[in-house]
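ok new one. same drill as before - structure tokens go in, u give me an amino acid for every spot. 320 of them this time. try not to just spam alanines like last time pls lmao
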């Protein structure tokens, strides 16, 4: 199943789709089960995620009811911010990017990186939608993008096993972890994380895709090509399967002595080549994003019948 928040007939709605082509409104489904509290009290995407343990099964058991619903097509521009995450942890799980980033700081790769997935907390309240204008960070001159995957948690867990972690995943999407590299470089000298280099904005993918839509995992991830474009030019393409740590392993690590709640979002870290920082290495003239640039990221269809995949397409606006 695919889940999104969309603009439909002038209002914001939580919508679902079985194939990415035809969508239906959750409110229309809920009308058929007015006496069912878990359904009737679910008003939006985050409500659904928090009750997804019961509601996903409810949808599966009522396939016949889905067939009665009115469906409609959705344009790319109809997709809104799916929901505001409960928290946001961003990991660092693609070796190519980690090696390049460390090289840029004059550092060698360290063996500890291979031992466990590492993360930092970022600002969940700065999430923006897949089509929103993103303000250039004030007083920065080195704005960058970061091509990432996102995982949405659907169950409360603590000290999870890999199996429990897998069962706790609600779905996946794409994510752009915008970065002010000059701010980040200053902050990282204090060894407290990137903080002000990251907290101004993160853009969330247009839709969340359930794991059963993706088939069997390949290595630590899925066999899914992801593309980054800048001003319409293809900048890089990478495959999810090249990740060093699976999202299940990230969840196990994050849940150690810590309760993880439905609605939390995990980022994968930047895919190799998925930012300007890596492409600037060894170059005298550095390229950074500018006001007016448009940055696009999307999952590429796995087969010709795929009609809709998670994406972000954001234009960079003036500082605010």
């Amino acid at each position: 199943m695919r889940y999104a928040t969309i603009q439909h007939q002038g209002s914001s709605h939580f919508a679902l789709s079985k194939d990415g082509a035809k969508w239906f409104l959750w409110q229309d489904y809920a009308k058929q089960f007015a006496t069912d509290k878990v359904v009737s009290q679910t008003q939006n995407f985050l409500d659904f995620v928090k009750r997804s343990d019961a509601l996903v099964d409810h949808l599966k058991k009522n396939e016949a009811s889905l067939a009665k619903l009115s469906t409609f097509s959705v344009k790319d521009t109809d997709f809104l911010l799916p929901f505001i995450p409960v928290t946001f942890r961003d990991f660092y799980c693609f070796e190519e990017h980690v090696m390049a980033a460390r090289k840029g700081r004059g550092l060698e790769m360290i063996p500890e990186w291979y031992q466990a997935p590492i993360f930092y907390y970022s600002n969940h309240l700065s999430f923006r939608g897949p089509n929103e204008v993103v303000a250039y960070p004030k007083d920065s001159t080195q704005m960058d993008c970061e091509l990432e995957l996102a995982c949405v948690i659907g169950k409360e867990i603590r000290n999870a096993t890999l199996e429990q972690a897998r069962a706790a995943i609600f779905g996946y999407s794409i994510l752009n972890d915008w970065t002010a590299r000059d701010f980040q470089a200053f902050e990282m000298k204090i060894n407290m994380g990137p903080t002000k280099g990251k907290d101004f904005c993160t853009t969330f993918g247009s839709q969340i895709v359930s794991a059963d839509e993706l088939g069997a995992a390949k290595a630590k991830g899925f066999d899914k090509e992801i593309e980054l474009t800048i001003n319409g030019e293809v900048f890089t393409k990478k495959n999810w399967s090249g990740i060093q740590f699976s999202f299940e392993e990230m969840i196990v690590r994050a849940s150690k002595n810590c309760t993880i709640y439905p609605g939390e979002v995990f980022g994968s870290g930047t895919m190799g080549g998925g930012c300007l920082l890596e492409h600037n290495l060894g170059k005298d003239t550095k390229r950074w994003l500018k006001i007016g640039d448009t940055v696009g990221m999307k999952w590429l269809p796995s087969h010709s019948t795929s009609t809709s995949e998670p994406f972000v397409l954001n234009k960079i606006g003036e500082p605010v």
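The mean pLDDT is 95. and btw The first strand starts at residue 2 and ends at 8.
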